[in-house]
Amino acid sequence: MMNTILRYILCALLPILVLGCKKNNPITELGSTTNEFSAQLTVSYNNTRPLFGDTVVVTASTWQKDDKIDRVVFFETLYESFGIDLSLPKGTAIKTKDVTLPGGTAKFSTLVLSDTLKSRAIWQTVLAQNLDSYWETLTNNYVIRQPYILTPVTGKYPDGTALIHALSETDFGILKSLLAYSILKEDYLALFPDAPAAHFATAGPYVLSAVGISYLKDRLTRDNLIKNVQAISKYGTYSVKIDVDAVTPSGTVTSAPSRIFLNNL
Protein backbone atom coordinates (compact mmCIF):
# COMPACT_ATOMS: atom_id res chain seq x y z
CA MET A 1 0.00 0.00 0.00
CA MET A 2 2.79 2.42 0.95
CA ASN A 3 4.63 1.73 -2.32
CA THR A 4 1.45 2.51 -4.28
CA ILE A 5 1.05 5.86 -2.49
CA LEU A 6 4.69 6.79 -3.19
CA ARG A 7 4.28 5.98 -6.87
CA TYR A 8 1.23 8.31 -7.07
CA ILE A 9 3.18 11.11 -5.36
CA LEU A 10 6.16 10.71 -7.71
CA CYS A 11 3.90 10.70 -10.77
CA ALA A 12 2.25 13.93 -9.59
CA LEU A 13 5.56 15.70 -8.87
CA LEU A 14 7.46 14.61 -11.99
CA PRO A 15 5.90 17.15 -14.44
CA ILE A 16 6.52 19.98 -11.94
CA LEU A 17 10.16 18.97 -11.50
CA VAL A 18 10.70 18.79 -15.26
CA LEU A 19 9.17 22.22 -15.82
CA GLY A 20 11.11 23.70 -12.94
CA CYS A 21 14.40 22.49 -14.37
CA LYS A 22 13.78 23.74 -17.92
CA LYS A 23 16.10 26.62 -18.91
CA ASN A 24 15.02 29.58 -20.98
CA ASN A 25 16.83 29.62 -24.29
CA PRO A 26 17.24 33.20 -25.49
CA ILE A 27 17.86 32.02 -29.03
CA THR A 28 14.42 30.44 -29.27
CA GLU A 29 12.45 33.18 -27.49
CA LEU A 30 9.83 34.88 -29.63
CA GLY A 31 9.19 38.58 -29.84
CA SER A 32 6.55 39.53 -27.30
CA THR A 33 4.13 41.02 -29.84
CA THR A 34 5.35 39.88 -33.25
CA ASN A 35 5.50 36.11 -32.69
CA GLU A 36 8.87 36.10 -34.46
CA PHE A 37 12.33 35.11 -33.28
CA SER A 38 14.48 38.06 -32.21
CA ALA A 39 17.84 38.64 -33.83
CA GLN A 40 21.03 38.19 -31.82
CA LEU A 41 23.29 41.26 -31.86
CA THR A 42 26.66 42.25 -30.42
CA VAL A 43 28.60 45.43 -31.20
CA SER A 44 32.27 46.22 -30.67
CA TYR A 45 34.55 49.22 -31.31
CA ASN A 46 38.20 49.30 -32.31
CA ASN A 47 38.83 52.61 -30.48
CA THR A 48 37.29 53.41 -27.11
CA ARG A 49 38.75 56.91 -26.72
CA PRO A 50 38.65 58.55 -30.15
CA LEU A 51 39.42 62.25 -30.60
CA PHE A 52 37.88 64.65 -33.08
CA GLY A 53 38.89 63.55 -36.57
CA ASP A 54 39.55 59.94 -35.57
CA THR A 55 37.80 57.03 -37.25
CA VAL A 56 36.08 54.38 -35.15
CA VAL A 57 35.24 51.06 -36.77
CA VAL A 58 31.86 49.93 -35.43
CA THR A 59 31.46 46.16 -35.83
CA ALA A 60 27.95 44.70 -35.55
CA SER A 61 27.66 40.89 -35.45
CA THR A 62 24.14 39.54 -35.89
CA TRP A 63 22.12 36.48 -36.82
CA GLN A 64 18.59 35.22 -36.44
CA LYS A 65 17.29 31.67 -35.99
CA ASP A 66 15.26 31.69 -39.23
CA ASP A 67 17.73 33.98 -41.02
CA LYS A 68 15.10 36.71 -41.13
CA ILE A 69 16.76 40.10 -40.68
CA ASP A 70 15.23 43.05 -42.49
CA ARG A 71 17.94 45.62 -41.70
CA VAL A 72 20.72 46.65 -39.37
CA VAL A 73 20.63 50.35 -38.46
CA PHE A 74 23.38 52.54 -36.98
CA PHE A 75 22.37 55.69 -35.07
CA GLU A 76 24.25 58.70 -33.69
CA THR A 77 23.23 61.13 -30.93
CA LEU A 78 25.38 64.25 -30.55
CA TYR A 79 25.25 66.47 -27.47
CA GLU A 80 27.35 69.32 -26.11
CA SER A 81 27.42 70.99 -22.70
CA PHE A 82 29.72 73.93 -22.06
CA GLY A 83 30.48 77.19 -20.34
CA ILE A 84 31.85 80.40 -21.82
CA ASP A 85 35.43 81.61 -21.50
CA LEU A 86 35.42 85.36 -22.28
CA SER A 87 38.18 87.94 -22.13
CA LEU A 88 38.32 91.67 -22.98
CA PRO A 89 41.38 93.60 -24.22
CA LYS A 90 42.27 95.33 -20.93
CA GLY A 91 42.38 92.21 -18.78
CA THR A 92 38.78 91.39 -17.82
CA ALA A 93 38.24 87.63 -17.92
CA ILE A 94 35.31 85.46 -16.87
CA LYS A 95 34.55 81.76 -16.96
CA THR A 96 31.01 80.54 -16.44
CA LYS A 97 31.53 76.83 -15.72
CA ASP A 98 33.48 74.87 -13.11
CA VAL A 99 35.10 77.94 -11.57
CA THR A 100 37.34 76.95 -8.68
CA LEU A 101 36.66 78.71 -5.40
CA PRO A 102 39.56 80.13 -3.37
CA GLY A 103 41.49 77.29 -1.78
CA GLY A 104 40.64 74.94 -4.67
CA THR A 105 38.20 72.91 -2.58
CA ALA A 106 35.03 73.40 -4.62
CA LYS A 107 33.73 74.52 -7.99
CA PHE A 108 30.68 76.43 -9.09
CA SER A 109 29.04 77.29 -12.41
CA THR A 110 27.04 80.38 -13.32
CA LEU A 111 26.09 79.74 -16.96
CA VAL A 112 26.12 76.31 -18.61
CA LEU A 113 24.66 75.86 -22.08
CA SER A 114 23.63 72.58 -23.70
CA ASP A 115 22.44 71.52 -27.12
CA THR A 116 21.33 68.22 -28.65
CA LEU A 117 22.83 68.42 -32.13
CA LYS A 118 21.41 65.12 -33.35
CA SER A 119 19.06 62.63 -31.69
CA ARG A 120 19.24 59.01 -32.91
CA ALA A 121 20.02 60.17 -36.42
CA ILE A 122 20.64 57.30 -38.85
CA TRP A 123 24.17 57.35 -40.23
CA GLN A 124 24.19 53.91 -41.86
CA THR A 125 21.69 51.21 -42.79
CA VAL A 126 22.39 47.74 -44.18
CA LEU A 127 19.33 46.19 -45.81
CA ALA A 128 18.46 42.50 -46.09
CA GLN A 129 19.39 42.26 -49.77
CA ASN A 130 22.94 43.38 -48.95
CA LEU A 131 23.54 41.20 -45.90
CA ASP A 132 25.05 38.24 -47.77
CA SER A 133 28.19 40.25 -48.50
CA TYR A 134 28.77 40.47 -44.73
CA TRP A 135 28.35 36.75 -43.93
CA GLU A 136 31.33 35.11 -42.21
CA THR A 137 31.30 31.34 -42.14
CA LEU A 138 33.84 31.17 -39.32
CA THR A 139 31.38 32.67 -36.84
CA ASN A 140 28.11 31.97 -38.70
CA ASN A 141 27.25 35.65 -38.29
CA TYR A 142 26.65 38.66 -40.43
CA VAL A 143 29.62 40.82 -39.44
CA ILE A 144 29.11 44.42 -40.49
CA ARG A 145 32.05 46.81 -40.09
CA GLN A 146 31.24 50.48 -40.57
CA PRO A 147 33.74 53.36 -40.18
CA TYR A 148 32.50 56.32 -38.18
CA ILE A 149 34.48 59.59 -38.25
CA LEU A 150 34.15 61.79 -35.17
CA THR A 151 33.40 65.13 -36.79
CA PRO A 152 32.16 67.98 -34.60
CA VAL A 153 28.84 69.45 -35.73
CA THR A 154 27.74 73.03 -35.10
CA GLY A 155 24.29 73.43 -33.59
CA LYS A 156 22.52 76.52 -32.31
CA TYR A 157 25.66 77.72 -30.49
CA PRO A 158 28.42 78.53 -33.02
CA ASP A 159 32.04 79.19 -32.09
CA GLY A 160 33.55 82.66 -31.77
CA THR A 161 31.71 85.92 -31.22
CA ALA A 162 28.66 84.57 -33.09
CA LEU A 163 27.98 82.66 -29.88
CA ILE A 164 26.96 85.94 -28.21
CA HIS A 165 24.19 86.50 -30.75
CA ALA A 166 23.01 82.90 -30.26
CA LEU A 167 22.40 83.37 -26.53
CA SER A 168 18.84 83.74 -25.31
CA GLU A 169 17.86 87.00 -23.61
CA THR A 170 18.03 85.26 -20.25
CA ASP A 171 21.50 83.82 -20.89
CA PHE A 172 22.81 87.10 -22.25
CA GLY A 173 21.45 88.79 -19.15
CA ILE A 174 23.45 86.37 -16.98
CA LEU A 175 26.59 87.07 -19.01
CA LYS A 176 26.11 90.82 -18.59
CA SER A 177 25.61 90.39 -14.86
CA LEU A 178 28.87 88.41 -14.60
CA LEU A 179 30.67 91.16 -16.52
CA ALA A 180 29.18 93.86 -14.32
CA TYR A 181 30.76 92.33 -11.22
CA SER A 182 34.07 91.37 -12.87
CA ILE A 183 34.91 94.10 -15.37
CA LEU A 184 38.01 96.30 -15.03
CA LYS A 185 37.77 100.08 -15.33
CA GLU A 186 39.67 100.27 -18.64
CA ASP A 187 37.39 97.68 -20.27
CA TYR A 188 34.29 99.47 -18.95
CA LEU A 189 35.51 102.74 -20.45
CA ALA A 190 36.11 100.98 -23.75
CA LEU A 191 32.45 99.93 -23.71
CA PHE A 192 31.16 103.26 -22.41
CA PRO A 193 33.73 106.02 -23.11
CA ASP A 194 31.57 108.76 -21.58
CA ALA A 195 30.95 106.97 -18.30
CA PRO A 196 31.00 109.43 -15.38
CA ALA A 197 32.90 108.95 -12.14
CA ALA A 198 29.69 107.91 -10.41
CA HIS A 199 29.84 104.61 -12.31
CA PHE A 200 32.96 103.54 -10.41
CA ALA A 201 33.19 102.41 -6.82
CA THR A 202 35.54 104.11 -4.38
CA ALA A 203 35.65 101.09 -2.06
CA GLY A 204 34.54 97.50 -1.90
CA PRO A 205 35.22 94.36 -3.97
CA TYR A 206 33.89 95.62 -7.31
CA VAL A 207 35.25 98.16 -9.77
CA LEU A 208 31.78 99.46 -10.60
CA SER A 209 29.42 101.18 -8.23
CA ALA A 210 25.79 100.13 -7.95
CA VAL A 211 25.02 102.78 -10.59
CA GLY A 212 27.65 101.39 -12.96
CA ILE A 213 26.55 97.80 -12.42
CA SER A 214 22.96 98.69 -13.21
CA TYR A 215 24.01 100.75 -16.24
CA LEU A 216 26.03 97.90 -17.77
CA LYS A 217 23.20 95.42 -17.25
CA ASP A 218 20.70 97.78 -18.87
CA ARG A 219 22.75 99.33 -21.69
CA LEU A 220 25.29 96.77 -22.89
CA THR A 221 24.25 95.43 -26.30
CA ARG A 222 25.48 92.30 -28.00
CA ASP A 223 27.09 94.27 -30.84
CA ASN A 224 28.91 96.58 -28.45
CA LEU A 225 30.26 93.63 -26.49
CA ILE A 226 31.34 91.80 -29.66
CA LYS A 227 33.33 94.85 -30.81
CA ASN A 228 35.29 94.75 -27.55
CA VAL A 229 35.84 91.00 -27.17
CA GLN A 230 39.44 89.87 -27.28
CA ALA A 231 38.66 86.15 -27.15
CA ILE A 232 35.64 83.94 -26.55
CA SER A 233 35.41 80.16 -26.58
CA LYS A 234 33.29 77.27 -25.42
CA TYR A 235 34.70 74.84 -22.88
CA GLY A 236 33.01 71.70 -21.69
CA THR A 237 32.19 68.31 -23.21
CA TYR A 238 31.00 67.04 -26.57
CA SER A 239 29.46 63.57 -26.49
CA VAL A 240 28.80 61.09 -29.28
CA LYS A 241 26.45 58.19 -28.55
CA ILE A 242 26.34 55.24 -30.96
CA ASP A 243 23.38 52.84 -31.06
CA VAL A 244 22.83 49.82 -33.31
CA ASP A 245 19.56 47.96 -33.93
CA ALA A 246 18.88 44.70 -35.75
CA VAL A 247 15.30 44.59 -37.06
CA THR A 248 13.33 41.59 -38.34
CA PRO A 249 10.73 41.85 -41.15
CA SER A 250 7.87 42.03 -38.65
CA GLY A 251 9.53 44.85 -36.72
CA THR A 252 11.05 42.99 -33.78
CA VAL A 253 14.00 45.13 -32.67
CA THR A 254 17.15 43.97 -30.93
CA SER A 255 19.26 46.85 -29.58
CA ALA A 256 22.88 46.67 -28.49
CA PRO A 257 24.00 48.66 -25.43
CA SER A 258 24.84 52.27 -26.29
CA ARG A 259 28.44 53.47 -26.40
CA ILE A 260 29.29 57.07 -25.53
CA PHE A 261 32.50 58.85 -26.57
CA LEU A 262 33.41 62.11 -24.82
CA ASN A 263 35.65 64.89 -26.07
CA ASN A 264 36.58 68.19 -24.50
CA LEU A 265 35.58 71.45 -26.10
Helix/strand layout:
Layout: H1 2-21, E1 40-45, E2 55-63, E3 71-87, E4 93-95, E5 99-100, E6 107-108, E7 113-127, E8 135-136, E9 141-149, H2 162-166, H3 169-182, H4 185-191, H5 210-219, H6 222-227, E10 231-247, E11 253-255, E12 259-264
Antiparallel strand pairs: 1-2, 2-9, 3-4, 3-7, 3-10, 5-6, 8-9, 10-11, 10-12
Describe it.
The structure is a single chain. The chain has 265 residues and is an alpha+beta fold. Helix content is 23%, strand content 34%. The strands form 3 sheets. Strands 3, 4, 7, 10, 11 and 12 form a 6-stranded antiparallel beta sheet that branches. Strand 10 (231-247) and strand 11 (253-255) form a beta hairpin. Mean pLDDT is 88; it is low at 1-6 and 13-33.
Sum this structure up briefly.
With about 260 residues, the chain is an alpha+beta fold. The chain has helices spanning about 1-20, 160-165, 170-180, 185-190, 210-220, 220-225; strands spanning about 40-45, 55-65, 70-85, 95, 100, 105-110, 115-125, 135, 140-150, 230-245, 255, 260-265.
Output the keywords.
four-stranded antiparallel beta sheet; six-stranded antiparallel beta sheet; disordered N terminus; alpha+beta; single chain; Immunoglobulin-like; 265 residues
Shape descriptor: rod-shaped
- Overall average residue pLDDT: 88
Q: So how many helices? A: 6
Largest sheet: 6 strands, antiparallel
What is the β-strand count? 12
Order of helices and strands: HEEEEEEEEEHHHHHEEE
Tell me the β content.
25-35%
Q: How much helical structure, as a percent, in the residues? A: 10-25%
The CATH architecture designation of one domain is: Sandwich
Give the CATH level 1 class of one domain. Answer: Mainly Beta
Question: Span between N and C termini?
Answer: 84 Å
* CATH topology type of one domain: Immunoglobulin-like
Q: What's the name of the CATH homologous superfamily of one domain?
A: Macroglobulin (MG2) domain
* Secondary structure category: alpha+beta
Low-pLDDT segments, ≥5 res: 1-6, 13-33
Radius of gyration over C-alpha positions, nearest whole angstrom = 31 Å
